[in-house]
From TrEMBL:
Annotated keywords: Signal
Source organism per UniProt: Shewanella colwelliana (Alteromonas colwelliana)
Keyword Nucleus recorded: no
InterPro entries in UniProt: DUF1223 (IPR010634), Thioredoxin-like_sf (IPR036249)
Protein name: DUF1223 domain-containing protein
Pfam families xrefs: DUF1223 (PF06764)
Signal peptide feature range: 1-21
Keyword RNA-binding belongs to the record: no
Length: 258
């Protein structure tokens, strides 16, 4: 058997064994499909009275059997509503900036909450509570993403099937689910809000200088926020030309959440 086939077989066994044992914060390995999934970004805030219904809609993906294969929901909490009386503990300025980056790249026409961006394009279908045209898109072959986390070290490769000369960037998010918050002030005062797919941390990694499809780096964990979640997930995705094109993700065994 050729060396290349032996290597591929060993990699496949590694992913199978890891999936059987369960993914953890410091021992994670996933490989994507070849076709592009649906990567859903929600921009939201605990200080926005219109946001809880959107978060409830996003939470329904917890019961979607194709979650982490075809669907990758991500809730980014912004900070620009903090001034009206309630500081969102999950809000980060970097998340607000990410939303404005979408505006600057003409992915969206304006900034508001709740706002959905799917695969780098503004999506208003949530107001009808259906994915609509998103589900009718013809799947396109974009390439395979492999992500490995061991300890605090990340290694990833993306084998692109695109002719684009644009260098890809890897994004890594730690996502929390089963989060509840009692809101004492602001537009949602006296309410208990529930959150799933909340982005607790977000890092980006540039490609290796010698290979635009390889990524290596150290990860950081938001220990002050992790304990608020009933469960966690790693989600990694590739962006090219400013748009999300491929992703991997999975729930984690709660070996060291609390």
């Amino acid at each position: 058997m050729p060396i290349s086939q032996i290597f591929s077989a060993l990699v496949g066994l590694m992913f199978t064994a890891n999936a059987f044992a369960g993914q953890t914060l410091d021992d994670f390995a996933m490989r994507s499909e070849v076709t592009q999934p649906v990567i859903i970004e929600l921009y939201t805030s605990q200080g926005c009275s219109s946001c809880p219904p959107a978060e409830t809609w996003l939470s329904a993906f917890s019961y979607e059997p194709r979650l982490w294969r075809d669907y990758f929901p991500l809730a980014f909490h912004v900070t620009y509503w903090d001034y009206i009386g309630w500081k969102d503990p999950y809000g980060q300025r970097a998340f607000s900036q990410r939303q404005y980056d979408h505006l600057n790249k003409n992915h969206i026409k304006q900034v508001y909450t709740p706002q959905f961006v799917i695969n780098g394009v503004e999506w208003r279908g949530w107001f009808d509570r259906v994915l609509g045209e998103v589900l009718t898109l013809k799947p396109r072959s974009v390439g395979v993403l492999d992500v490995n986390i061991l300890g605090k070290q990340l290694r990833a490769t993306f084998t692109s099937r695109s002719d684009s000369s644009e260098v890809a960037r890897l994004h890594l998010a730690l996502v929390g689910a089963g989060i509840t918050t009692d809101i004492k002030r602001g537009e949602n005062r006296h309410k208990r809000l529930a959150h799933d797919f909340t982005v607790l941390s977000h890092q980006t990694f540039d490609a290796n200088e010698q290979s635009k499809g390889e990524f290596v780096g150290k990860i950081t964990l938001p220990s002050d926020l992790m304990t608020n979640a009933e469960r966690l997930a790693w989600v990694a995705w590739i962006e090219q030309e400013g748009q999300a094109i491929q992703a991997v993700g999975d729930w984690l065994v709660p070996n060291n959440i609390h």
